[in-house]
Write a structure and sequence with these properties.
Strand content of chain A: 25-35%
Largest sheet of chain A: 5 strands, parallel
Radius of gyration of chain A: 17 Å
Oligomer: heterodimer
Largest interface: A-B, 28 and 26 residues
Distance between the termini of chain A: 38 Å
Largest sheet of chain B: none
Number of helices of chain B: 9
Shape of chain B: elongated
Number of domains of chain B: 1
Order of helices and strands of chain B: HHHHHHHHH
CATH architecture of chain A: 3-Layer(aba) Sandwich
Helix content of chain B: over 70%
CATH superfamily of chain A: P-loop containing nucleotide triphosphate hydrolases
Shape of chain A: globular
Structural class of chain B: mainly alpha
CATH topology of chain A: Rossmann fold
Distance between the termini of chain B: 27 Å
Chain lengths: 206, 222
């Protein structure tokens, strides 16, 4: 039973308490939508859950172990920053990412995924020449590349058009159905299959 | 190992060769400094020979510092560093690979260029040999220690001045021993003690710096 369990988390930034004794459990098939105003601590929470930063108190466990390499192998983390080098093209960016994450993938697979994301002809263009939405699509191609069991998505829909949002939502629904777990933030309501989505509302505290 | 090579080392090399202007910056800088010195202090062959080790070493240190800030900055800003941290690869290995790339890109061309520079500054063969050996032993130290300071300041804006200030105390001993080795060579004296000290500093840095860099990166990303 693979589960991501966070207990009694608290996080303080610049003397402001973002959240206190927050507990989150993410099991296979869960789709958790974190909502809240800007500055409520959504990104800080996701970074803690990804293992990028440490909570001030509390702990995060994956399968009853602290976050280690096994968690890294099961996680796709999508942050505000796309994680693409602007001077090399989409194909190379994704190939290097796959090599880092120990994923064996052929060029054809990447071409197919980029085509599915409506990026035909953009594979060999330096990423800095792509539009913001296209860059976001290239970054989100990772959802197709890595066989993971947890997705942590921080504002995946920023700059995407309605078609792009639809593709990503469909992929998320497929993933949850396969037994994956998603925790994501988004300022826009998710369409469709809302019965599977649970919400975590965060407040802006002074 | 092949993961590290395919995913990190090859990527950094590809990036370095995509940014041609920055690739040649250290070499051009070094060439300009060394060419300007005879114009500034006078072209007397004896004077040039006396100042040559100091000039080349100072120019090498400064040109290395020029490219230092970019070591982690771009990756930090575009989010690649986050993805690398979560890749499951050990962070110290990633750090070591990045340092190796920095050395290959910034310092190896300088070492290849040094015969020409030595000729400009009227070095003799013994001095030139000592210069090459000190550069080979000493420049990895610059990359390794420089990477610690860069990793610590990667989250700060316009940190290059801070990096220079942090690194100066570390680079002064290296400069002293390296120039002293070349001067000893000029006077036909043995210079192995200076080389041993430089090698010891580099070995110490090689053993400890990757861990310090990975810790600094974690702190910076917190």
């Amino acid at each position: 039973m693979s589960a991501l369990v966070a207990t009694e988390l608290s996080c303080t930034k610049r003397d402001r308490v973002l959240f206190e004794s927050l507990s989150v459990t993410l099991k296979p098939g869960h789709w958790l939508h974190v909502r809240g105003p800007n500055g409520a601590g959504k990104t800080s929470l996701l970074r803690i859950l990804a293992g990028l930063s440490q909570p001030d108190s509390g702990q995060v466990q994956w399968n009853n172990h602290s976050l280690d390499n096994r968690y890294a192998a099961a996680l796709v983390y999508h942050s505000h920053k796309p994680g693409l080098s602007s001077s090399i093209n989409a194909l190379d960016n994704l190939k290097f990412w796959c090599a880092q994450h120990n994923i064996t993938v052929s060029d054809d697979t990447i071409f197919d995924i980029l085509a599915h994301l409506a990026l035909v002809g953009m594979e060999d263009v330096p990423v800095r020449l792509l539009s913001a939405g296209q860059q976001r699509r290239v970054a989100l191609a990772r959802l197709w590349l890595k066989p993971a069991s947890v997705w942590i998505l921080d504002e995946p829909f920023t700059a995407l058009d309605t078609f792009g949002i639809k593709i990503i939502e469909a992929r998320c629904q497929w993933f949850v159905k396969q037994g994956g777990a998603i925790i994501m933030t988004s300022h826009q309501p998710l369409n469709g299959a809302s019965e599977t989505i649970r919400f975590l509302d965060m407040e802006f505290k002074l | 190992m092949s993961r590290l090579y395919q995913g990190v080392f090859k990527r950094d090399m590809t990036l370095a060769f995509h940014q041609k202007g920055e690739l040649f910056q250290p070499v051009i800088f070094l060439l300009i400094v060394v060419c300007l010195f005879p114009l500034g202090v006078g072209p007397g062959p004896e004077m040039l020979q006396r100042i040559s080790p100091g000039v080349i070493w100072i120019a090498a240190i400064l040109s290395g510092l020029l490219g230092m800030e970019r070591l982690f900055k771009d990756d930090f800003l575009d989010g690649t560093l986050e993805q690398l941290t979560l890749s499951g690869l050990p962070l110290y290995a990633i750090a070591l690979s990045k340092v190796a790339t920095h050395w290959l890109v910034s310092f190896l061309p300088i070492i290849f260029l040094s015969p020409l520079l030595g000729m400009f500054l009227n070095m003799n063969l013994a001095m030139y040999q000592a210069l090459i050996i000190t550069l080979l032993l000493g420049t990895p130290l610059l990359s390794l220690v420089g990477a610690i300071a860069t990793a610590l300041t990667v989250g700060l804006h316009r940190a290059s001045l801070l990096v220079s200030l942090l690194l100066l105390p570390v680079f002064i001993p290296l400069l002293i021993f390296a120039t002293s080795a070349v001067e000893s060579a000029a006077m036909q004296l043995p210079y192995s003690p200076q080389l041993a000290i430089i090698a010891a500093m580099t070995c110490l840095a090689l053993a400890s710096a990757p861990f310090a860099i990975s810790y600094a990166l974690k702190v910076s990303q917190h």
